[in-house]
Amino acid sequence: MTIDLVAAEKQVADLIIASHRGPFVQHSEDGWRRRVNGVFGAMEPVMRVTGGTWVCWGLREDEEPLSERHRAVFVDDDEKFRVHEVLLTKSEAKEFYEGFTTESLWPILFCFPSRLQFMPGLWDTYRMVNERFAQAIARLAAPRATVWVQDFHLMLLPAMLRKLRPDLKLGFFLHTAFPPPDVFGILPWREALLDGVLGCDLVGFHIPLYATNFARSCGRFLGARPHWKRSNLESHALSPTLVCDSLAYGSRTVQLLALGIGASREDIEHLALDEATQSYAADLKARMGVEHLLLSAERLDYVKGPVERVKSMEVLFDRHPEWIGRVSLLQVAVPSREGVPEFERLKDQMHQAVGELNSRLGSPTWQPIVNLSKTLPLQELVGLYLAADVCLVTPLRDGMNLVAKEYVLCRNDGLVVLSEFAGAAFDLPGAILVNPFSPEHVAEGIHAALEMKPKERKRRFRAMHRVSRSRDLTWWRKAFMEQMAAI
Ligand code: GDG
Question: Quick one: which of 378, 397, 395, 393 has its CA closest to 468?
Answer without folding.
Answer: 393
